[in-house]
Design brief:
The complex is a heterodimer of chains A (332) and B (218).
Chain A lengths: L1 E9 L5 E10 L4 E5 L6 H8 L7 E6 L2 E2 L5 H6 L1 E5 L10 H5 L1 H5 L4 H14 L16 H13 L5 E5 L7 H18 L2 E6 L2 H7 L2 E6 L3 E6 L1 H6 L4 H7 L3 H5 L17 E4 L2 E5 L12 E3 L4 H10 L5 E4 L5 E5 L1 H9 L1
Parallel strand pairs in A: 3-8, 3-9, 6-7, 7-8, 13-14
Antiparallel strand pairs in A: 1-2, 1-4, 4-5, 9-10, 11-12, 14-15
Chain B lengths: L1 H5 L1 H35 L4 H13 L2 H12 L6 H25 L3 H10 L3 H32 L11 H10 L2 H29 L14
Helix pairs in contact in B: 2-5, 2-7, 2-9, 3-5, 4-5, 5-7, 7-9, 8-9
The chains are: A alpha/beta (332), B mainly alpha (218).
């Protein structure tokens, strides 16, 4: 557990970036610090590895005050990922990942092997291991950044807007993979973002900070959407928080209707809608059994016929739902 | 032509002296500029005065410097130390700007992540900052080396000037061959030195020549 107790950061010019922040960041979960720019989220994050020193208050990791530790040693035990990955341009990809193990004095062979293992784990083609960072795309660089942060198997990983500089499709992939990775590794992750959607998607807990470094709310995302504590949080969470909250509603059993004749199938997989002409109408999005109500509603809204298609794990259609089905699920 | 054949020993000695007088100051200058440049980037208010001071030093006429140095250092007028010190001063005055620019060329997010992964400050300079600064520092090194090779000849005026002494010899005897030999060898020396530095740079910075990514795939 990482614990902030009355932590304040005041800069020499008098600006208060973080104001008496008290926060308990639970172990083995993703905690997202979110807020508008100037809310002190990055400052708070960087006080954990002491790349920024707090002015007053205490920060402790598993009950141990970090100010008593040697800063360099502390940092080697905490993974760190930043926006543009910050890879070392003069080192190959695999050497970038092996940086911390080498700093810790591991033997070369072991550092190299561990680095290769991690590259594979974050889904990077091993053919890229001997390349330099400049030869990689933004998304690939960010994967290397995550691998580098994990190389020495730290208990804590700090991530400072790691996915905000890549395009939306790549961002979505990286987010999914972070969640998948986290299921395996169970690190204590502190994640900073200004994007509330990202916070809701990734966080086990979300800490909303407001300008001037004050904690406005600390809750699991479903709770944050359902019960924002004040106008600031309500405004920040956004107008469509009701719709977003559907992400956390998982109806056990949506009553699906049999497949209509208009639905065109290819080996059981839905491909579009027939409307009498040669061309098929686009299918719209589909959802799986067990998906959130948000995914189900989205399928209904994007389908040209108003019928959302439910598929199984192999992508084969098992039934359709309409607005009434969703409305019934909402009422229950 | 026969003069060349009769004087290969002399030409060879002057060439060696020329090389020694030109290259040693480059090495000393580099050794001095790097810590100086590092201090200047650490205390950024220092860097502009240092660069300006370097500019002033560089504008001092070399002959004046060759003559003033023995008076300051107490060395003999005919000592090679004078030339080496003078050229080291020129080297530092030029290189300091490149070292500062080179260290500043380290992207902030790279520096930040170097600190965050746990490099100590000195270790970071050696393992991250300086390697990244190599292309900019080497650009200065090329200029300064060629400049030094041409400047050594000026030392002939005070009696130690490597190939420059062939010029004095030729002028005194009103005889062109030694002058031509001196000019050609100076040029060749400058060319070879430049080639060696460029090669060294290529070996040190394989990363600086790589192509950009092909296609955006995550």
């Amino acid at each position: 557990m990482i614990e902030f107790e009355d932590v304040t950061k005041r800069y020499p010019d008098g600006t208060v970036a973080v104001d008496k922040l008290s926060l308990r960041i639970p172990s083995n979960q993703i905690t997202v610090l979110v807020g508008p720019s100037g809310c002190g989220k990055t400052t708070s994050l960087r006080m954990i590895n002491r790349t920024i020193e707090r002015t007053s208050g205490t920060i402790s990791i598993d009950g141990e005050d970090i100010s008593g530790k040697d800063a360099v040693t502390l940092r080697r035990g905490i993974g760190y990922v930043i926006q543009n990955a910050g890879l070392f341009p003069h080192k190959t990809v695999v050497d970038n990942v092996a940086t911390v193990p080498k700093l810790l004095g591991w033997d070369k062979r072991k550092a190299h092997d561990t680095a290769m293992e991690l590259l594979e784990r974050v889904g990077l083609d091993l053919k890229l291991a001997q390349r330099y960072p400049a030869q990689l795309s933004g998304g690939q660089q960010q994967r290397v950044g995550v691998a580098r942060a994990l190389a020495a198997d730290p208990a804590i990983m700090l991530m400072d807007e790691p996915f905000s500089a890549v395009d939306p499709i790549v961002r979505h992939q990286l987010q999914e993979e972070l969640l998948r990775l986290q299921r395996d590794i169970g690190k204590t992750i502190v994640f900073v973002t200004h994007d509330i959607d990202e916070a809701i998607k990734l966080g086990d807990n979300v800490a909303v900070l407001q300008v001037g470094g004050k904690l406005a709310q600390f809750s699991p995302p479903a709770e944050l959407l359902a019960n924002p504590v004040d106008d600031f949080v309500r405004g920040f969470v956004g107008q469509d928080r009701g719709y977003r909250a559907l992400t956390f509603v998982h109806p056990d059993e949506l009553r699906v209707h049999p497949l209509p004749a208009e639905l065109a199938l290819q080996d059981g997989v839905p491909v579009g809608w027939r409307n009498g002409s040669q061309e098929l109408l686009p299918l719209g999005s589909v959802f799986k059994r067990g998906d959130s109500l948000r995914a189900a509603l989205d399928a209904v809204l994007t389908s040209p016929t108003g019928c959302g298609v439910c598929v199984d794990d192999n992508g084969k259609a098992i039934g359709v739902i309409d607005q009434t089905t969703v409305a019934e699920a909402l009422r229950s | 032509m026969s003069w060349i054949g009769d004087n290969t020993g002399l030409i060879w000695d002057q060439l060696r002296e020329h090389l020694y007088l030109a290259i040693l100051p480059v090495i000393f200058g580099l050794i001095i500029s790097i810590p100086l440049g590092y201090i200047a980037t650490r205390y950024s208010w220092l860097s502009n005065p240092l660069i300006a001071f370097g500019g002033v030093l560089y504008s001092l006429p070399s002959i004046a410097l060759f003559i003033v140095i023995p008076a300051i250092l107490g060395t003999k007028v005919l000592s090679t130390v004078n030339i080496i010190v003078a050229l080291t001063i020129y080297t530092v005055s030029l290189l300091i700007r490149n070292v500062i620019d080179g260290l500043r060329s380290v992207p902030p997010d790279v520096r930040q992540s170097a600190i965050a992964v746990g490099y100590g400050s000195l270790h970071r300079v050696v393992a991250v900052d300086l390697p990244i600064a190599v292309p900019v520092i080497f650009a200065g090194l090329r200029v300064v080396t060629v400049a030094n090779i041409s400047m050594v000849s000026v030392g002939a005026v005070i009696g130690i000037g490597g190939l420059g002494e062939l010029f004095t010899l030729g002028f005194q005897k009103d005889f062109l061959t030694p002058v031509v030999v001196g000019v050609v060898l100076s040029l060749l020396l400058a060319l070879c030195a430049d080639l060696i530095i460029v090669t060294l740079q290529r070996v040190l910075t394989p990363w600086a020549r790589v192509a950009s990514p092909v296609g955006e795939v995550a």
